[in-house]
Amino acid sequence: MELFEAIYERRSVREYRDQPLEHDVLEKLLEAARWAPNGGNCNAWRFVVVTSPVQKQLLLKFTPGVDDMPAAIIVICIEPKQKIVKEATRLIYMADAAIACQNMALAAHALGLGSCIVVSFADIALRTLLDLPDEVSPYVILTVGYPDESPEPPPRLALEEIAFEDEYGAGWSS
Q1: Which residue of 27, 33, 38, 154 has the lowest C-beta tally within 10 Å?
Q2: Residue among 106, 25, 103, 21 nearest 69 (CA)
Q3: Domain harbouring 33, CATH code
Q4: What's residue 138's pLDDT?
């Protein structure tokens, strides 16, 4: 699949078919995440792939952003390299995790899968359910599976409304 085609066509899928994902497909998604750029090559991300029906059912109780049962729920976590993290470093780790998540979402689309990026979850419950160490923080969730819907593209603002040339407020000309 061509890159811009994937960017333009990927949608947030919230309804999935009851069909498991093959282990090698999940590994392709994780490889896409692993190759995302990250500040200082710290690789501070960690990925918890949940496929157990029981574990997924429990997880859904603490993620109000997920309505349907996906084949897999990938929890993208941040594991800092040191105990004390400066605010700037924390922001870099967050950006890195978000880029890794986007790589997985695009890879899922290229593989004919649906996905949805979810940020609404109960932190403490998720930590407990996944047995996360104290220093590891859940940051974002990606649901993945075979789609049971084809959402229409959402409206987007025109470039002239969101992009500026040389300084803020200076109109963008297409």
Answers
A1: 154
A2: 21
A3: 3.40.109.10
A4: 96
